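Field: sequence (string)
Field: structure_tokens (string)

Example rows 1 and 2, in order.
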Amino acid sequence: KTRSLLSLDWMAGPSNDGGVSWADLRTSDEGMPSVSTTAQTEIEDRIATIWGQFRSGDDGGAVITEVDEEVLSRADHVEYLRAGIDRLGRGYTALDASRPWLCYWITHSLDLLGTDLTSEENARFIDLLRRCQGAEGGFGGGPGQLPHLAATYAAINAIAVIGTEEAYAIIDRNTLLTWMQSLKMADGSWAMHEDGESDVRGAYCAASIAVMLDLAGDGLFDGTPEWVARCQTYDGGISAVPGTEAHGGYAFCGLAALALLGAADRIDADKLASWVVHRQMRFEGGFQGRPNKLVDGCYSFWVGGVYPLLQPLLKSDSTLYRPAYLQDYILRCCQAPMGGLRDKPGKNRDYYHTCYCLSGLSSSQHFSTKETGSSACDVLRPTHSLFNVTLPKADAIIAFFKERPL
């Protein structure tokens, strides 16, 4: 069974030799419809219409059409992202506690697209992020808000993308380290904020921040790899805390945290591979976050980003998923008509999905040389598999702080 999963026999796709057709890959409710199967059928109907526009052959297409023209609406995405720097719609008031995240989603997306920020844009981001930093360490979701590990991760990543010494200089590493030490739990887990919940997101955010800023020494992560390893579930995935349901986002956070801490071998890689290969949807090509859930563009990174970390741990060199199918889903189904990317057809664009669809597209484009679904003009800058900022930006901030130990 393991060999079959890793060789992708289960997702061979349609062929012209009498094998399966695209229709055979659609979900069947087996005569017992439910809310879940109805929703799945509806999204497959939407995507079937899209597939019919560019696949060839019977039943909507037996092969993926070779794409030579530009499919990525790069200029539209840049325009959408830059508009968000100047003004956000009233709907974004709900994200008042996510301002560093908005900074990160926008700056990273622009960087992936090959668009550099202007000096004025850099100054505006730096000013906001400086005001989000707490007096006792860490960054909050907005000026004057409670410092939070997730907001701090987003702020540090945004600063890395800006990539100037002026941006680096706003980080108070002394208070940041003291604040982080206060969030470390006795069992090795990490609280997200003072008196907050502890889960695998905290372990990843803390590890990413500490490695990027050269703060990971002095036993700061003692017990953390062991705790993260206990989050692996009976079916091979990784959950928020030990004993709960596996989820694609937690799979990335858990494995990336272990890799950052030099402890990726603590996970059962074969079991994780068995779980993660089943998250790519056979008909849609994109990923779901959990079994029996719908495809969602954000998992292009949260699940797709697991593969570059997992592949070196496996004895098999088989490609664990179909990058071309994922790229088809992102480029054909997730691009909004006026720029920006979305969860799935029928949903609205937003900066979160724009960031993680593009991050997943970049990861898939640079992960495998065996299969690609993008033309050369659609290739993005490569993103770092652990930090999810572009490679030069990750290298630059790490080198800067390594030369300036506390």
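Row 2 begins here:
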Amino acid sequence: MTFLVFSLDLITSSGAVILPPWEVPDNGGKETKVTMSLYVTQFRSVLFDAEMTFDIHQSWTDPRFKNTSRNPNDYNVYRAEEFENIWRPDTYIANEMPNGVFETTPTDNIYAYFNGSLFLTTRHSIIFHCDVKLFALPIKDETCSLYFKSASYVSKNLKLTWEQVNPVLYSQNMETYAVKIHKTEPKRCPLEKDGPCVHLLLHVQRTYQVMIVQVYLPSTCIVVITWLGFWIHHTEVSSRTRISTISLTAIVTESVAVLIINPDQVHMAAIEAWNSGCMVLITLAFLEFVIVHNYHRREIRTNSVPKSIQTKKGTSSRPINISANFKANNKKNRTKPNLSKERIYIVEMEAGANKTHENRKTRRITPETIDKISSVIYILLFVLFNVYYWSFFLTEADKQ
């Protein structure tokens, strides 16, 4: 039987009552199945919010457009101003943020095939919410969900489904702004009590290059510059102090900048842990210099050799060449069995002082040695921190 009830004259007329397809008598009360697909041209994610521009393609069957006398592959195209009286799905995006729709040029078209199939295209540019794992951001993925629902129909009469083949297509020239969508999951909503619903889950990953350039590379350079300060002599107080203070100021500034660009009560644990670790290393380097400098000053005061030794009875501070006098007197008095007690005391005192000074000189640790050992420990601590940091946030962060 050939029939075409919904003609162009009826489309352009006013006051016509538009019945949904399931209420058409020739349809037998069957539910209308609306198949959906998306064509994404732009995507941008900024922490909790995502901005996406896409076309929604919807197709369904309406028996009023069926005409067996025509080629079923032929179709008529109806523009937005022409299909006021054509029934079409009232699909909307349920989790779209208020005032998130941007003004766009109308691109709505309905392709009505003579086999009764209709195809609707609409353009949308929206802002919606994303679920972010702040503990692992920016290392781990974030997920963005889109819920498409019907505004006024129930699941008994209208059913929303995804296209079986390629439900979501992405433009080859799609702009993603330092993020990429590496996985797409079209699903049915678990509960459809509130009406027909489909769910689209996007797995978004931030590119490592951007985060390395913005966060990890600058802080690593600051740590390395602080490490180079160990090779400046410890007597260069001004140079060592400037390197430590400037490095500490730079890492604190970077940490504060992360807090400023993020909303209130948002704590990005991965970035905060990285900046905190770098800050601790730089502080330890400055503390090491303070210890070495004070150690050097104590060495100057305590490790000097006595230049003069006073006799026990005399009051003169004139230096006495003990060794020369002892040798001269020893030659003259080889046959003398006894030496004065005063002379023996002075010789023993000098010998003990020289021996003590030589022992200190051989076993004491110099400030240069402390700097060399500290530089090795410093770089090893930074390497161990990197190993633990990346292994934890790449593996253990999923359990949080």
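free_text_note (row 2): Confidence is low (pLDDT under 50) at residues 1-15, 100-105, 307-320.
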